[in-house]
Amino acid sequence: MTPPPLGVVIVTHRAANTIDACLGSLMASEGVALRVVVVDNASPDDTLTRLRAHDVTVIEAPNDGFAAGVNRGLAVLSADAALDRFWVLNPDTTVAPDTARRFATHPAPPGGFAMIGGRVLYDETPPRIQIDGGTIDWRSGVTRNLNQFAPADAPPPDPAEIAFVTGASLVVSRAFLDAAGPMPEDYFLYYEEVDWAMRRGTLPLLHCPDALVRHVSGASIGSASGDRRASPFSEWFKHRARMMFLRRHRPASVPGGLAFTTAKAAQHLSRGDLAAARATWAGGFGLGPPRDVRATMAAAGIDPTRL
Fold it and tell me: pLDDT digits over 16-28, tens only?
């Protein structure tokens, strides 16, 4: 029997420490025919050297953000008529041997689907759940992770509860791409997949609980993970994106979103973290990045005029 096909897009930036483990686990997938495209967003380390040691298609690109990298990879894969499902996967993940096959064969309703999510686990022992799908607090635009910190064997969520699928491990259908278009690029970081899910129309979100991925959260951009606080770079982009999302999809909630920004900035100040407070305030209130965030952007090859 011919194994089912699955396209895979991975976007890398400064992923030299994680990409070998990611691709090694992916290439050990069983019962599936993978076509893998890796888009490197101007990594300053030896990510490209490591990528060329693997049997994958590599695209070198400027650092125009996560979604731009995803869209470059999808453009290549979608030209292959044999592919009907496309897996967006983070480079700081490892996958179980049967995860790709489960995504490729997960039953779809007669009218098709928009996205399939699986169970993303923190890369720790024993593993706990990072996300089983996300919800949105429409009062503030804050997103929540279903089953976060629950044991790895916790019951799966009701797919009806899921408002979006995390971009760390996200399968989209060709029907969804045709209907919704590419992932929105103007967020640059954060909320791209949340906004994308809002464009699905009547196509449902599905959940495949046995499609397991381990994730070293925030390895390249400084997102919060466990006891690690988010970097000012992460805070500025996150709060900027949250308010962009609210203005686009729930303008009536903008005051609540700004109130949340103010509260988070005050929380950072109470902890003595002036840099995080400044970045949170600036991002949420639509101000330019503070000096330290601009310095991180420059080191990452990010053109501020792209924002």
Answer: 999 999 999 999 9
Dump pLDDT digits (tens) for 207-264.
Answer: 999 999 999 865 555 455 555 578 999 999 999 999 999 999 999 999 999 999 999 9
33-41 and 93-95 strand pairing: unpaired
Residue 30 buriedness (CB in 10 A; 0-12 / 13-18 / 19+): exposed
What CATH number is given to the structural domain containing 22? 3.90.550.60
Can you tell me the distance from the alpha carbon of 43 to that of 105, in angstroms, rounded to the nearest whole number? Answer: 34
Task: Say if residue 161 is in the same domain as residue 283.
Answer: no
Quote the domain boundaries for residue 248. 232-306
Domain count of the fold of the chain: 2
Residue-wise pLDDT for 79-99, tens only, equals 999 999 999 999 999 999 999
171 inside domain: yes
| pTM (two decimals) | 0.94
Question: Which residues have CB under 8 Å from 37's CB, separation 6+?
Answer: 7, 8, 9, 10, 56, 57, 58, 59, 73, 76, 77
In a domain, 276, yes or no: yes
Residues in the chain: 307
